[in-house]
Amino acid sequence: MSIFKRIKQYFSDLYFCYSVFETNKKKIREWEKKQREQK
Predict the structure, then answer these.
(1) Rounded Cα distance, 18 and 12, in Å
(2) DSSP sequence for 1-39
(3) What torsion, rounded to 10 degrees, do the Cα atoms 29, 33, 38, 39 define?
(4) pTM above 0.85, yes or no
(5) Residue 6: predicted pLDDT
(6) Cα–Cα dist 35/39, whole Å
(7) Amino acid 21: pLDDT
(8) What is the structure's pLDDT at 39?
(9) What pLDDT is attached to residue 26?
(10) Could you give the 3-state DSSP secondary structure of residue 39?
């Protein structure tokens, strides 16, 4: 495995984690809104 492949893999994993994190943030915000509205 070349170092370039490794770096590429690392960045794609990083990007994947970031996108998952962003989606979860949106979901959490929507969930918090719903929780507030219920009270």
Answers:
(1) 10
(2) --HHHHHHHHHHHHHHHHHHHHHHHHHHHHHHHHHHHH-
(3) 100
(4) no
(5) 96
(6) 7
(7) 97
(8) 75
(9) 97
(10) coil
Residue 9 CA to residue 7 CA, distance in Å, equals 5
Token pair 């998952």 is found at: 20
CA 10 – CA 17 distance, rounded (Å): 11
Amino acid, res. 15: Y
Say which residue the tokens 């915000």 belong to: 29
pLDDT in tens, 1-39: 699 999 999 999 999 999 999 999 999 999 999 999 987
Q: What are phi and psi of 2, to 5 degrees?
A: -75, 160
Query: Rounded to an integer, what is the distance from CA 14 to the centroid of its chain?
Result: 9
